[in-house]
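Q: Mind making up any chain with structure tokens?
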Amino acid sequence: MSVPKYDDLFDPLLQAMHRLGGSASVSEQEDMVATVLQLSDKELSEIHRGNRTKFSYRLAWARNYLKRYGFLENSSRGVWALTPDGLKHKSVDKAVVKRLVQKLEKKSVQISKLAEVEPEGEEVTWEDELLEVLRNILPASFERLCQRLLRESGFVQVEVTGRSGDGGIDGKGIVRVGGLLSFHVIFQCKRYKGTVSSSFVRDFRGAMIGRADKGLLITTGSFSRDARAEAQRDGATPIDLLDGHELVQKLKELSIGVEVKKQVVERVEIKKEYFSDL
């Protein structure tokens, strides 16, 4: 089957949220909805435009509609949850949802044939725009950006060590937990347009064995289901994954190259000069 239209994802998304206990990150939602619909990796990897997959793009709009309808809410930390109304339902009349949302969005772009044409909107656009910026900065600049990101997230002794012949390892750092425990982490920063496969994760693990407690892969792309499964495979050194969507949300959360204009409606402004001057 092909990836469903955004309005055909309303019910699968609600069902996925119930299976996940009522709250979930975006990546958890994507994995569970893909499971509910039994989508293949090929279907999940189909690109919509630029860096974003068609599945990720359409699911983002399904979340947007269900949020405005009152079934979903999200925190500043990127966690989505079912509202009290959402907890009562595992399905919804998509025509009713769209009519109500259209009424609430009188100032939005006029949309015709909603079942056939996907909406355009700022909530998705700023993320795509920032990912496009990140894909076009110099590799060394992207490494420095990831270094700053890790430092702002609580890592110490973060070094960029990327060099050829090092198995793709770009840097290392130490993360402290509760001021008592520390873990040595090796990371790789990958500017990527498509989907990172499980073989890439295996190669990275092979390069880091015996050199750190954990691994971290940061990409502007996305990870396949097999890649996510490989990253947390039992008995293997664990690897954490940060995909493009999570990366730009983290940059927004930490105000790195991104400024949120506080208005009646949140407006995200990307400071492109920050990335060009890295």
